[in-house]
């Protein structure tokens, strides 16, 4: 299947700092990328949908000023957790959707980033 | 809100077929059925998807009932590495509002 990478795989930061997570589609171009959050023993919750070159669409209850999403190219999207607090500690997962060829309409997930805020 | 219903857990013996059911009685005509699985602490892995015909790939088979209100994912020869949470999702893949909404899934435990 297609490869989606995330960096870093895990990060520990102090409360009040900002953390940036990168999501890359390595072997296909993705017009749309999605960001999910998963708390322990819970299912994935969609946070936002980002389309290349436009503003992200956030799900209800997700603060857009706290979770900044940038999708500047067809292979890269970033999620910045601003002024992180312990309750932001979670597993953040991105996914990318291809727009042409065999990848069209298929969504592939990254390996996830474990964020721990102290 | 997830549009699917799955049993919370299932067990299967190694080497046997694992049949995971999913109900999606409110599926609409343009919605596909997707199956993903998530091994602990990893991102979800795509397995298979279909619209109305049965589908098969190297990982699994997907059987969709004629009325499309339910489906079954079949892992023909389960191995210990197939232990994971399996998610059945319905989504309009071609629509402008496309997104995958995850429910609670089924925790499949493959036993030796």
Number of strands of chain A: 11
* Oligomer category: heterodimer
Ranges of chain B with pLDDT <50 over ≥5 residues? none
Q: Describe the sheet with the most strands of chain B.
A: 5 strands, mixed
Q: Give the low-confidence spans of chain A.
A: none
Name the features.
heterodimer; A: 118 residues; mainly beta; seven-stranded mixed β-sheet; four-stranded antiparallel β-sheet; B: 112 residues; five-stranded mixed β-sheet; globular
Textual characterization of the structure:
The complex is a heterodimer of chains A (118) and B (112). In chain A, 34% of the residues are buried. The mean pLDDT of chain A is 90. Chain A has no helices and eleven strands. Chain A is mainly β and 118 residues long. In chain A, strands 2, 4, 5, 6, 9, 10 and 11 form a seven-stranded mixed beta sheet that branches. In chain A, strands 1-3-8-7 form a four-stranded antiparallel beta sheet, with no helix packed on it. Chain B is mainly β and 112 residues long. Chain B is built from no helices and nine strands. In chain B, β5 and β6 form a beta hairpin. Chain B is globular, with a radius of gyration of 13 Å. The mean pLDDT of chain B is 92. Chain A binds chain B through residues 1, 4, 6, 32, 34, 36, 43-46, 49, 91, 93, 95, 97, 105-112, 114, and chain B through 36, 38, 41-46, 49, 87, 93-94, 98-105.
Sum this structure up briefly.
The complex is a heterodimer of chains A (118) and B (112). Chain A is mainly beta.
Question: Secondary structure elements and their pairing?
Answer:
The complex is a heterodimer of chains A (118) and B (112).
Chain A (H helix, E strand, L loop, with lengths): L3 E4 L2 E4 L5 E7 L4 E9 L6 E7 L5 E2 L8 E7 L2 E6 L8 E9 L8 E3 L3 E5 L1
Chain B lengths: L8 E5 L4 E6 L8 E7 L6 E6 L4 E2 L4 E4 L5 E6 L8 E8 L14 E6 L1
Parallel strand pairs in B: 1-9
Antiparallel strand pairs in B: 2-7, 3-4, 3-8, 5-6, 6-7, 8-9
């Amino acid at each position: 299947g297609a490869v989606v990478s995330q960096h870093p795989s895990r990060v520990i930061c102090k409360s009040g700092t900002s953390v940036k997570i990168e999501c890359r589609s390595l072997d296909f171009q993705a017009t749309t990328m999605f960001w999910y959050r998963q708390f322990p023993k819970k299912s994935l919750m969609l946070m936002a949908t980002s389309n290349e070159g436009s503003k992200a669409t956030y799900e209800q209850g997700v603060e857009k000023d706290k979770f900044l999403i940038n999708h500047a190219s067809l292979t890269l999207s970033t999620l910045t957790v601003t002024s992180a607090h312990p309750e932001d500690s979670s597993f953040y997962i991105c996914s990318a959707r291809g727009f042409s060829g065999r990848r069209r309409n298929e969504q592939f997930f990254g390996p996830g980033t474990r964020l721990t805020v102290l | 809100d997830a549009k699917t219903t799955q049993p919370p857990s299932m067990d299967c013996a190694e080497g046997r077929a694992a049949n995971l059911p999913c109900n999606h009685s409110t599926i609409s005509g343009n919605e596909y059925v997707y199956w993903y699985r998530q091994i602990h602490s990893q991102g979800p892995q795509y397995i298979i998807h279909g619209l109305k015909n049965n589908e098969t790939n190297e990982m699994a088979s997907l059987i969709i009932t004629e009325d499309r209100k339910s489906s079954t994912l079949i892992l023909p020869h389960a191995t210990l590495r197939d232990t994971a949470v399996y998610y059945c999702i319905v989504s309009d893949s071609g629509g402008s509002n496309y997104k995958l909404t995850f429910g609670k899934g089924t925790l499949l435990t493959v036993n030796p």
